[in-house]
Amino acid sequence: MLFAAPLLPGRLVRRYKRFLADVVLDDGTETTAHVANSGAMLGLDAPGSRVLLSRSLNPARKLALSWELVEADFGAGPEWVGVNTMHPNLLVAEAIAAGQVPPLSGYARMRREVKYGKASRVDIKLEDDARPDCLVEVKNVHLMRAPGKAEFPDCVTARGAKHLEELAGEVAAGRRAVMVYISQIGSADSIALARDLDPAYKRAFDRARDAGVEALALVCRITPEGIAVARMVPMLG
């Protein structure tokens, strides 16, 4: 995934109301950017951090700029981290299509944002006439409290636990279900559950795994020019 135009550099003043961030651009302009991230963003929203913003081509948007990347140091030196949670679904879809996720390869068709169950929608659905459908739920990961170890979630996510329960039901009905955790921190060499931040999610994860829901972990390569899946890493419970 390449950014449509060069990103605008600046310094973070503050993030507030979850979806807003005040930024001073390098040219001295003060602006407010949209934050496409409902999480706590622990360790990523320190005032003064270097950030990169994208500009929307949609003239109807209230906020033209979106926060894309932030520079952070988790112990191995400064690196760019992706904070826009609108990108992971596309990144995973691109990686599957390119054959970068072997456990999800070989399906004839891929569809995104597909309804299933009573009132649910799955991020990616893989279909093939020769085998059961595969439902793929994607979760963005951008928390790192120890070098190399990315964690999910960074705050309580009742919605995430509900997804796990629904996917377990799909497995019981004869379909395949896979959770894909994708780290927008390139230095991650594993992804684990932050059980202390959301014990209920950890319990839901364990029940889902016992029911046959699979879990995969991917790590991205992040540059100011774009983001792409770089490799698979171990998924720790």
The rough form would be described as globular
Let me know the average pLDDT.
Answer: 96
The arrangement of helices and strands along the chain is: EEEEEEHEEEEEHEEHEE
Helical run tally: 3
Helix fraction, binned, reads 10-25%
Strand content: 35-45%
Regarding quaternary structure, what we see is single chain
> Could you give the distance between the termini?
29 Å
Sequence of strands across the biggest β-sheet: 3-2-1-4-5-6
Please give the radius of gyration in angstroms.
Answer: 18 Å
Structural class: alpha+beta
| Low-confidence parts | none
Number of strands: 15
Note the main sheet.
Answer: 6 strands, antiparallel
Written description of the protein model:
Helix content is 16%, strand content 45%. It is built from 3 helices and 15 strands. It has helices at 88-97, 158-172, 199-210, and strands at residues 8-16, 20-25, 30-34, 50-55, 65-73, 78-82, 109-116, 120-128, 131-141, 143-146, 149-152, 176-183, 190-193, 214-223, 226-233. Strand 5 and strand 6 form a beta hairpin. It is globular, with a radius of gyration of 18 Å. The two termini are 29 Å apart.
Please summarize what this structure is:
This protein is α+β, with helices and mostly antiparallel strands and 237 residues long.
List the helices and strands and how they pair.
Elements: E1 8-16, E2 20-25, E3 30-34, E4 50-55, E5 65-73, E6 78-82, H1 88-97, E7 109-116, E8 120-128, E9 131-141, E10 143-146, E11 149-152, H2 158-172, E12 176-183, E13 190-193, H3 199-210, E14 214-223, E15 226-233
Parallel strand pairs: 9-12, 11-13, 12-14
Antiparallel strand pairs: 1-2, 1-4, 2-3, 4-5, 5-6, 7-8, 8-9, 10-11, 14-15
